């Protein structure tokens, strides 16, 4: 299945990538090489194998509960100790939106 320059142009437009002239030709060759590398996979006849859409299968949550650890927790005073500015147990930082209070 070879990709035409029109196919590559459509993919580039969808990805909002501007390709012109030699770039389009080069990308067409590159993508056709990439597709050709996947051809051996099609040689396998695996009708009874379900596709794997996620590498960890049915594992749903690998994160621990988000609970404070009293032994390792940093106190508010220690956390704000070297802050340039603090107010109401929070760090104060300059506004990035240009609005000043």
UniProtKB/TrEMBL annotation:
Keywords: Transferase
KW Transferase (keyword) present: yes
GO biological process, alphabetically ordered: regulation of translational fidelity
Xref: InterPro entries: Asp/Glu-ADT_sf_sub_c (IPR036113), GatC (IPR003837)
GO molecular function term, any single one: transferase activity
Protein name per UniProt: Aspartyl/glutamyl-tRNA(Asn/Gln) amidotransferase subunit C
